[in-house]
Every structure is written in structure tokens, then in C-alpha cells.
């Protein structure tokens, strides 16, 4: 994700805050004196260049597309939808192909989720208490929860221990006849993060506990409806050995912490905003933080912390500058103010996904956070600026306003890539940034589009969602004006529906 831009301090180019509609708070008007005229002139100029560029792209790929059409039968099914050969699995264990056409609203929603983690060296005990609301009261439908490989300790419905009134297989826990009105579901599971080599869900590496739940990792922590349209308010209590894990982090605001008997301690976190489970995060380990503050335009003071191993702390100065610049830019350009009292970033060398936008607890690979003048290039500094901005911008475009299902992955990623590209352009050189982005498309995206890995922006089906995280899900969408408009109106419409549902 190297960006050949040197970030410089400046107010940036003022734009019209047309995404202010997706904010749930009353935004302040943005000064637009002469902005609209300049925006139109720039837009028309960029559109002309964009048309010339797409014509050249179309012409240059015609000979490749001819070969692709001749192999159409082979390309209609992407690699992600083909089962691995020579593997005999029982019908129960075979992953199920998910089709877009089969989407239906959930029969049950989750209103609140209280999680309790007892972190241990041999095993971790996870207790969840979920408030379940049937979509249609008076009708009982089976409630199926995802949970591959989990060890079930106990399950209760409204405080009553279930012994036989459920079905359990290697991937799911099903309640055949749950109550027809709101009820409380309590589940205790046992997991083994130190043996979790998938690096999905909760795993342990280099002595630290860490999570990665996008796209479908939360189901490896506890039994749950692991889908983006299940949005709930979360609390998370973490208990662990204080010497081994002095830092205990999760989403939201820190409500309380304290010491316990036996050399243990705990921390209780609360996220007051509803989120899908893929945005849940937990980090526990021996880390130190660089602290700073940011005052929002409404006057709230937000505590900012970047956590790293102690030896890396001096290399986080540019990351903190980038975070504060992103927060200020999002307020000035898009009218979006940060909505919590605390924002944490964790940078560890063995995080497997590069960077992740978990609500208020972004987790990064160290390469995308650490920089020092002795070893980092201008491209490294520019990459950190862009990635820090990208994950922060997800706080609204992806977190507070999110996807209905994973077929809409490109909506949140495409729009947020557009936002981070605009941010980097305003902080540095817009022409240089644009050249770098197009060069990346030509080097990586175009070959994929002409290969067996080509697939629609929104595929018709998938088996393994992780295989969908390609260039189509992010940077290439910036070149599609029509798709960008589709993204924009989707988020506006979704936010209107979401606010209506919460108000009611």
C-alpha cells in the first residue's frame, strides 16, 4: 500500500460535505465560498481525463478479453466457489455455498451482548449473555448460531439450563423452538487461542492475545449469528493475569478496571453504539502507549492512544500525527465527528490482516504504523498516513453505517478508499497521488481482471468470504463514477432507515 506522497501540514482543499447526511448528529455548516464553482471545474476536468483513461484501458484490454470470452465456461465460477479436490468430508463438515439470491431477513435480532473473557494459558472461557428479539413476536422459528470447532460448556434460556432442547454439530448450535417473545440467551464456551493457527477469532501470538473477526471470525469465539445485519450494543469484561497481560483492551469506552485475587485484574468496556460482530476486538498483552488528545468541533476531548511493544514506541510519532490529521479532515470535509471518548490503535508485528477498523480499537501490523527518519522512506510515511486515515474513516463508512451482507463488501471498502485517497491528496500532492493510484491499478487490478480470478464487484455466490478481499473490493471502485454514486445513495438510504428504526 505504498503511496508516493510526502504528507505536509495544511488545511487541505475544502470540499462540500455531501456525506454529512450519514451522520446521526446535527452537523455544522461547512464554509463553501466559491467551493462549488471550483468543485465543478475540477470535476469536469477530472471527468474528461477519466473518460480518456477508461478509453485507453478498454482498448488495451480488448485482446485479453477475447481470450477470456473463449474460456467463459471456466471463468463463470471463481476459485472461491470451487471445493478443494481430493478431500473427503462429511456432508455436515462441508462448507456451504452462500448465494446472493437466497438472502432473507433474520428471524431473530440481538439487542445487547455482554461478553466475559477469562484468559488463560491452557484455555480461555468465554461467557456471553445475549438479549434476543424475534423479528415477529408470537412466531417461533429455529435459531441457528454459528460456531465451528467450539466446545460448548453450557447454554441457558431465561436462566433455565438446557440439557436436550438444542442441536449441536461441528459448525452450528440450533435452538429448534426458542421463546416467541424477547428472551435472554446465555452461552459458555471453551476455546484455545494458543492453538488457533487460523488467526481468525481470538488467537495468541508473541505472548499477546489478539482478535481478527472480519469477515467471519467472531464465530470462532462464541456461538453467534455471525452476519453483518445483526447489530447489537456490546459490553466486554476481560480478566487475566496482571503480570503477563497488564493491558486489557476492547471496543468503546473503559467503564472500570481493578485488581483481583491471585494476581489477576480485569477491565470492563462498553460500546454504546450498535455494531456487527465482525467489528468486535480484544487485545491483551504487554504493551505501552503514546498518548495525546483531540478536541472535536463540538468541544469534546478525545483521548488518543497508540499501543506497541515498548521498544517501538518512539516510532509512533508520525502515526499519531496522521490520526489527528484524519480526525480534523473528516470534520472539515465530510462533517463527521468522532463519537466516543477514547480511540485506541494497537500495532503488533504479527497481526495477519495489515490493518482492521474495529470500532474504536484499530489493530495494525507494525509496518503500517511505525516509522523513523533513519529507516523510513517518503513512501513509508505516505503509506502510514493513508492507512491510518483509511481505518479511522471506517468509523462512519463501514462501522456506524454498515453492510447488509458480505456481498456488499465493496460498498464500505470502495467508499472508504475514496475518502482516504482524498485525504492523502489534500495532505500532499493530488496529481502525484492520482498517478500512484492509477499505476497500482494497472500493475495489480488489470491483470486480475484478465485472469481466472476475475469476478463481478458483487458476486452471485461465495464459499469462503476471505477470498473476496481483492482489488475489486477497494481501490478499483474509485474509478467507477456510477458505482461511487450507488455507494453514496446506498449509505444515505441505509442511514435514514437505521435512524427510523432506532427512533421507533
TrEMBL record:
<dbReference type="InterPro" id="IPR027268">
    <property type="entry name" value="Peptidase_M4/M1_CTD_sf"/>
</dbReference>
<dbReference type="GO" id="GO:0008237">
    <property type="term" value="F:metallopeptidase activity"/>
</dbReference>
<keyword id="KW-0378">Hydrolase</keyword>
<dbReference type="InterPro" id="IPR042097">
    <property type="entry name" value="Aminopeptidase_N-like_N_sf"/>
</dbReference>
<dbReference type="InterPro" id="IPR045357">
    <property type="entry name" value="Aminopeptidase_N-like_N"/>
</dbReference>
<dbReference type="GO" id="GO:0008270">
    <property type="term" value="F:zinc ion binding"/>
</dbReference>
<feature type="transmembrane region" description="Helical">
    <location>
        <begin position="477"/>
        <end position="498"/>
    </location>
</feature>
<protein>
    <recommendedName>
        <fullName>Peptidase M1 family protein</fullName>
    </recommendedName>
</protein>
<keyword id="KW-1133">Transmembrane helix</keyword>
<dbReference type="InterPro" id="IPR014782">
    <property type="entry name" value="Peptidase_M1_dom"/>
</dbReference>
<dbReference type="InterPro" id="IPR012779">
    <property type="entry name" value="Peptidase_M1_pepN"/>
</dbReference>
<dbReference type="InterPro" id="IPR001930">
    <property type="entry name" value="Peptidase_M1"/>
</dbReference>
<dbReference type="Pfam" id="PF17900">
    <property type="entry name" value="Peptidase_M1_N"/>
</dbReference>
<dbReference type="Pfam" id="PF01433">
    <property type="entry name" value="Peptidase_M1"/>
</dbReference>
<dbReference type="GO" id="GO:0009507">
    <property type="term" value="C:chloroplast"/>
</dbReference>
<dbReference type="GO" id="GO:0006508">
    <property type="term" value="P:proteolysis"/>
</dbReference>
<comment type="similarity">
    <text>Belongs to the peptidase M1 family.</text>
</comment>
<keyword id="KW-0862">Zinc</keyword>
<keyword id="KW-0482">Metalloprotease</keyword>
<keyword id="KW-0479">Metal-binding</keyword>
<keyword id="KW-0812">Transmembrane</keyword>
<keyword id="KW-0645">Protease</keyword>
<dbReference type="GO" id="GO:0004177">
    <property type="term" value="F:aminopeptidase activity"/>
</dbReference>
<feature type="domain" description="Aminopeptidase N-like N-terminal">
    <location>
        <begin position="175"/>
        <end position="279"/>
    </location>
</feature>
<keyword id="KW-0472">Membrane</keyword>
<keyword id="KW-0031">Aminopeptidase</keyword>
<feature type="domain" description="Peptidase M1 membrane alanine aminopeptidase">
    <location>
        <begin position="320"/>
        <end position="470"/>
    </location>
</feature>
Amino acid at each position: 500500500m505504498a503511496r508516493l506522497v510526502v504528507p505536509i501540514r495544511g488545511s487541505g482543499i475544502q470540499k462540500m460535505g455531501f456525506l454529512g447526511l450519514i451522520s446521526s448528529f446535527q452537523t455544522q455548516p461547512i464554509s463553501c465560498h466559491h467551493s462549488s464553482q471550483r468543485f465543478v471545474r475540477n470535476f469536469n476536468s477530472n471527468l474528461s481525463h477519466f473518460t480518456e483513461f477508461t478509453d485507453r484501458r478498454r482498448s488495451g484490454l480488448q485482446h485479453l478479453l477475447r481470450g477470456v470470452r473463449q474460456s467463459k465456461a471456466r471463468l463463470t465460477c471463481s476459485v472461491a466457489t470451487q471445493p478443494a479436490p481430493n478431500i473427503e468430508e462429511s456432508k455436515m463438515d462441508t462448507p456451504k455455498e452462500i448465494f446472493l439470491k437466497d438472502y432473507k431477513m433474520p428471524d431473530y435480532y440481538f439487542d445487547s451482548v455482554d461478553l466475559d473473557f477469562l484468559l488463560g494459558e491452557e484455555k480461555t472461557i468465554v461467557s456471553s449473555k445475549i438479549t434476543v428479539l424475534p423479528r415477529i413476536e408470537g412466531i417461533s422459528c429455529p435459531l441457528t448460531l454459528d460456531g465451528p470447532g467450539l466446545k460448548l460448556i453450557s447454554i441457558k434460556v431465561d436462566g433455565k439450563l438446557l440439557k436436550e432442547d438444542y442441536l449441536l454439530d461441528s459448525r452450528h448450535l440450533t435452538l429448534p423452538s426458542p421463546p416467541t417473545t424477547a428472551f435472554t440467551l446465555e452461552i459458555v464456551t471453551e476455546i484455545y487461542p494458543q492453538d488457533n493457527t487460523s488467526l481468525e477469532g481470538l488467537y495468541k501470538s508473541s505472548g499477546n492475545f489478539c482478535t481478527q473477526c472480519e469477515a467471519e471470525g467472531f464465530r470462532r469465539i462464541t456461538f453467534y449469528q455471525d452476519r453483518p445485519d445483526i447489530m447489537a450494543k456490546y459490553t466486554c469484561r476481560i480478566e487475566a493475569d496482571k503480570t503477563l497481560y497488564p493491558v486489557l483492551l476492547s471496543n468503546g469506552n473503559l467503564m472500570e478496571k481493578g485488581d483481583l485475587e491471585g494476581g489477576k485484574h480485569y477491565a470492563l468496556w462498553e460500546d454504546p453504539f450498535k455494531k456487527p460482530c465482525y467489528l468486535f476486538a480484544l487485545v491483551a498483552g504487554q504493551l505501552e502507549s503514546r498518548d495525546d488528545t483531540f478536541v472535536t468541533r463540538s468541544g469534546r476531548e478525545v483521548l488518543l492512544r497508540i499501543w506497541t511493544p515498548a521498544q517501538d514506541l518512539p516510532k509512533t510519532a508520525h502515526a499519531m500525527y496522521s490520526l489527528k490529521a484524519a480526525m480534523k479532515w473528516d470534520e472539515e470535509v465530510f462533517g463527521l465527528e468522532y463519537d466516543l471518548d477514547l480511540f485506541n490503535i494497537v500495532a503488533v508485528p504479527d497481526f495477519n490482516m495489515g490493518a482492521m477498523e474495529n470500532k474504536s480499537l484499530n489493530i495494525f501490523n507494525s509496518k503500517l504504523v511505525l516509522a523513523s527518519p533513519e529507516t523510513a522512506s517518503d513512501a513509508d510515511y505516505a503509506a502510514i498516513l493513508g492507512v491510518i486515515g483509511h481505518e479511522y474513516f471506517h468509523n462512519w463508512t463501514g462501522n456506524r453505517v454498515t453492510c447488509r451482507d458480505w456481498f456488499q463488501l465493496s460498498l464500505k471498502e470502495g467508499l472508504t478508499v475514496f475518502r482516504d485517497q482524498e485525504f492523502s491528496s489534500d495532505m500532499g500532492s493530488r496529481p502525484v497521488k492520482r498517478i500512484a493510484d492509477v499505476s497500482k491499478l494497472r500493475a495489480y487490478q488489470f491483470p486480475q481482471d484478465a485472469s481466472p480470478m476475475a469476478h463481478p464487484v458483487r458476486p452471485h455466490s461465495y464459499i469462503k468470504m476471505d477470498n473476496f478481499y481483492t482489488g475489486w473490493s477497494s481501490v478499483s471502485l474509485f474509478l467507477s463514477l456510477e458505482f461511487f454514486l450507488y455507494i453514496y445513495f446506498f449509505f444515505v438510504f441505509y442511514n435514514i432507515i437505521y435512524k427510523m428504526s432506532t427512533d421507533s
